[in-house]
Amino acid sequence: MDLNLRGRRALITGSSKGIGAATAEALAEEGCDLHLAARNESALDDLSRRLRAAHSVDVSVHPVDLRRPEDLERLAGDVPDLDILVNNAGDIPGGSLDIIDGKAWRHGWDLKVFGYVDLTRLVYARMKARGRGVIINNIGNAGERVDSNYIAGSSGNAALMAFTRALGGRSLHDGIRVVGVNPGPVATERILTLLEKRSGEKNAYADLMAGYPLGRAADPREIADLIAFLASDRSAYTSGAVFTVDGGMSAAGA
């Protein structure tokens, strides 16, 4: 399906790997010119070279730490004419209330929660001045299927779900759509690390996958393709909504 995205400009945070890198690939295939932001400059450089060669799109790399207000301001200033923002960066730690201390909690939220909110604030103002834009928040189904052993993440994701719905409920008045995606387990390096830390067992991933729909986690590209569709005009009447992609786990109450 041609999503008519050719020539549009998209910024993807946390785009050096996982869902962020898959989203960059999906949007590049549709002809988007890309701004890739993450802390790992070498990984961004490798991805940008591959996307330029494969899809003949413009790709700019922005090595930034989105926990730092000055990096947020610089990034927003470097990409003033965005059509699409994909908030994706995040590394909220797993653990229960007695394990995740205040410092770790705030460190995680500074990137995933306040990083999304603050970058959205900066980008939204520029999009509003132009009268158009799409903001997509990649959140996570832990905000729906709350987990005491991922309490900082569940709480942060629930906050971002509310943020997305509150902002997206009125944003079309400014010509802007704001939507969210709640992936369930996705086959990334991060989920393997979280599961092993939670259980203390190196085979935790394989054991858990056996009980998941289709016996597997989602592929990052399955999330990225939805993000690309939501970014397109084929989803032009969609705002203030959060879409869950977890194989039916949330619906089943599993």
TrEMBL record:
Keywords: NAD, Oxidoreductase. The keyword Electron transport does not apply. InterPro entries: NAD(P)-bd_dom_sf, SDR_DHRS6-like, SDR_fam. The keyword NAD applies. GO terms for molecular function: oxidoreductase activity. Belongs to the short-chain dehydrogenases/reductases (SDR) family. This is Short-chain dehydrogenase. It comes from Planotetraspora kaengkrachanensis.
